[in-house]
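Memo to structure team: turn this sequence into structure tokens by end of day. - J.P.
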Amino acid sequence: MNQSDELLAYLESNGIEARTFRHPPVHTVEESKSLRGDIPGLHTKNMFLRDGKKNYFLFVTDEDAVINLKQLARKIGAKGGLSFGSAAALLELLGIQPGAVSVLAVVNDKERKVKVVLDQRLAGVATINCHPLSNQRTTSLSREALEKFLAVTGRDPSYIDLDDDSPT
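Reply from structure team:
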């Protein structure tokens, strides 16, 4: 059983409803749009980030969102500037390779070293799509199913509003 299958079994064993679609491997949002077909719901962009004090964050937003890292750093309380985490840190902390970054990868972060931050836009949609630890699949979750997954994995995500210019 591969890591993606294990995750899907984990979701099922925890009563988290999910629907998964197979497609050719995708590495960018543009590839995803052209190869995934017509999967309804909001498709996510996931950013594995670290600040100047080596604190790690997983920021999840709409695939079309344009992100200003300086603004995001202020919003999430990063110490120093934000930069993308390395592939080695991604593998060590979330157990995945670049191209498969997903909120579902926090299932592998048993020590909870990565802070989950969700864009407020996700709170207003019925269906959220993300990779199930493989860039050859897309998994659709209801907002409630995502919240249940985060609770089961011991996560209390922060929601931030990128459209609000005031600091949080």
